[in-house]
Specification:
Number of domains of chain A: 1
Number of helices of chain A: 9
Shape of chain B: globular
Number of strands of chain A: 0
Structural class of chain A: mainly alpha
Number of domains of chain B: 2
Largest sheet of chain B: 6 strands, mixed
CATH architecture of the largest domain in chain B: 3-Layer(aba) Sandwich
Number of strands of chain B: 14
Radius of gyration of chain A: 20 Å
CATH superfamily of chain A: MetI-like
CATH topology of chain A: MetI-like fold
Radius of gyration of chain B: 23 Å
Order of helices and strands of chain B: EEEHEEHEHHHEHEHEEHHEHEHEHE
Order of helices and strands of chain A: HHHHHHHHH
CATH class of the largest domain in chain B: Alpha Beta
Largest interface: A-B, 23 and 31 residues
Oligomer: heterodimer
CATH class of chain A: Mainly Alpha
Distance between the termini of chain A: 46 Å
Largest sheet of chain A: none
Strand content of chain A: under 5%
Helix content of chain A: over 70%
Helix content of chain B: 25-40%
Chain lengths: 212, 342
């Protein structure tokens, strides 16, 4: 029983922290993409082009490869390349470009006419971002964050390779090494429950605040 | 109509767009003056550059050439910060209302006031005053998705008026509304001019709108302002031959805006070319086929002249009888085209 609890705690630790860091990195990137895109309110082809390329580049790496490549970064930030804390670094960096794309998509859904109305009223760029675009896109952003968190639950299973622990790692050990199918399935059921809860909560929240 | 000094002057405003077919002069060398307290309307067919022109006036589109003097300053030379301040002296309403979907009615109207840094008490008082003015006090906490089109536009007008702007721009502000709601929105605009001394520049493809509310009208064709003048002059004695042609073509366009099937039949726009307009084809048709024909709109002047006649009708009956009727029309040289409605 202790094993399950500990693994659940590790998974939650990895997912919650890497989600937070991914949002901190990804949300501004997504915003920058939308502002600088051709036809955006701060159009800048150079910024947009570099950002677009950079995000695609990071999204191309298979997660396993990314974990290995990011060893130096983990060592720099955490002081080690092994363990739950160290796994948070590649998880967050893998999810950040995904968050940027999700954010870009959500902000692009904001009715152009609404942004123009705000411009016509004399809103400055910061006011358009924080008082119009973000509030208008919020239900969609929350749906996107839900998807990100669920993806991270999946990715975190792979972090066992670098000693990240967690439910995915436990399932692999039960299934492959110890041949305990019953415990394997219990682990999977816990993962299913977590995913269900996250999806349910995300949907409810998004719908509750959406006034469209 | 009482009018004050000049509020807005454009000189040689030109806006070009790159299109697949080359350079398009959406607005071509347009100059005009608008006086304080008047309602100035631009009419034109779709693609004439109306929308681009009105969007140039608050620099939602930046003109490639020309100057726009508003309230004593050339706004095309302003810094971004000063432009946003100048824009706070103009309100704008749109065809699709463009309300903030995630803000309720109160917050929509309060938005421009918050930009100007008013206190909470000032904002509360001003929004309530405006809600009363547009007769929506009971919708204070409703969200735009809960409102009808007319109510949305009233909220948009209240939002545009909230900071006591000198000018309201309307980009097809009534085009998405039914005729009755259109009239009430136009009355509201007229009342705002009379009570607050605000000036209105509107664009429309609906001639009834232009006729019923504007003091002066400008006619746009292919990006050029081909004629402008007081509304009576333009409709009674236009100077330019192409203005006359234009007004006729607009009349035909408008009729179909207000159409709806009366008894569940199909709507057709019939064209009677050449001498076919002199023959009693339709009465023939009604006698021959068991169908009902409702006359919805037509241009009788043109029909009488015997050149080209337009008639919009609703034909109802058994589907095959309708098809037979259409074949009969074709045989007699009458073109038909189904009109989509609803």
């Amino acid at each position: 029983m202790g094993e399950f609890l500990r693994a659940t705690y590790e998974t939650l630790q990895m997912v919650v922290l890497s989600s937070l860091f991914a949002l901190v990195m990804g949300l501004p990137l997504g915003l920058l993409l939308v502002l600088s895109k051709p036809g955006g309110i701060k159009e800048n082809r150079g910024v947009y082009g570099v950002l677009d390329l950079f995000i695609n580049l990071f999204r191309s790496f298979p997660f396993m490869v990314l974990m290995i490549i990011l060893f130096p970064v983990s060592r720099l930030l955490i002081g080690k390349t092994y363990g739950t804390e160290a796994a948070i670094v590649p998880l967050a960096i893998a999810a950040a470009p995904f968050v940027a794309r999700i954010m870009e998509q959500s902000l692009n859904e904001v009715d152009r006419g609404v942004v123009e109305a705000a411009q016509a009223m004399g809103s400055r760029t910061g006011q358009i971002i924080f008082r119009v675009m973000l509030p208008e896109a919020l239900p969609s952003i929350i749906s996107g964050i839900t998807i990100t968190v669920i993806n991270l639950i999946g990715y975190s299973a792979m972090s066992g390779a670098i000693g990240g622990g967690g439910l995915g790692d436990l399932a692999v050990r039960f299934g492959l090494h110890r041949r305990q199918p019953r415990d394997l399935w219990i682990t999977v059921l816990i993962l299913i429950a977590i995913v269900q809860i996250v999806q349910f909560a995300g949907n409810r929240l998004s719908r509750a605040i959406d006034k469209r | 109509m009482k009018s004050g000094g000049i509020l807005l002057t454009t000189k040689n405003v030109t806006k070009r767009f790159e299109t697949d077919d080359g350079l398009l002069h959406a607005v071509n060398d347009v100059s005009f003056d608008v006086r304080q307290g008047e309602i100035f309307g631009f009419i034109g067919l779709s693609g004439a550059g109306k929308s681009t022109l009105v969007r140039c006036l608050n620099l939602l589109e930046r003109p490639d050439e020309g100057t726009i003097y508003f309230d004593g300053q050339d706004i095309t030379t302003l810094s971004e910060k000063d432009l946003s301040l100048a824009r706070r002296k103009m309100g704008m309403i749109f065809q699709h209302f463009n309300l903030f979907y995630q803000k309720n009615v109160f917050e929509n109207i309060a938005y421009p006031l918050r930009l100007n840094g008013h206190t909470k008490e000032e904002i509360d008082a001003r929004v309530m005053e405006l809600l009363d003015y547009v007769d929506l006090a009971d919708k204070k906490t409703a969200y735009p998705s809960e409102l009808s089109g007319g109510q949305k536009q009233r909220v948009a007008i209240a939002r545009a008026l909230s900071t006591n702007p000198k000018l309201i721009l309307s980009d097809e502000g009534t085009s998405a509304l039914d005729p009755e709601t259109t009239r009430s929105i136009l009355q509201l605009l007229r009342r705002s001019v009379n009570e607050f001394g605000v000036t209105v520049i509107l664009i429309t493809h609906q001639m009834e709108v232009a006729k019923s509310i504007c003091d002066r009208i400008g006619v746009l064709e292919d990006g050029r302002l081909i004629e402008e003048g007081p509304v009576e002059q333009l409709f009674v004695s236009p100077k330019q031959a192409r203005t006359i042609r234009f007004i006729q073509s607009l009349e035909e366009e408008i009729e179909e805006d207000d159409l709806e099937a009366l008894s569940g039949g199909r709507l057709f726009r019939l064209t009677f070319p050449g001498d076919s307009s002199r023959k009693p084809i339709l009465s023939d048709l009604i006698r021959r086929f068991p169908v009902d024909v409702n006359f919805l709109a037509g241009n009788i002047n043109v029909v009488r002249s015997g050149k080209v006649g337009y008639l919009t009708v609703e034909i109802s009956g058994e589907p095959e009888e309708i098809e037979n009727s259409l074949a009969f029309l074709t045989k007699n040289g009458v073109n038909h085209e189904e009109v989509k409605y609803g």
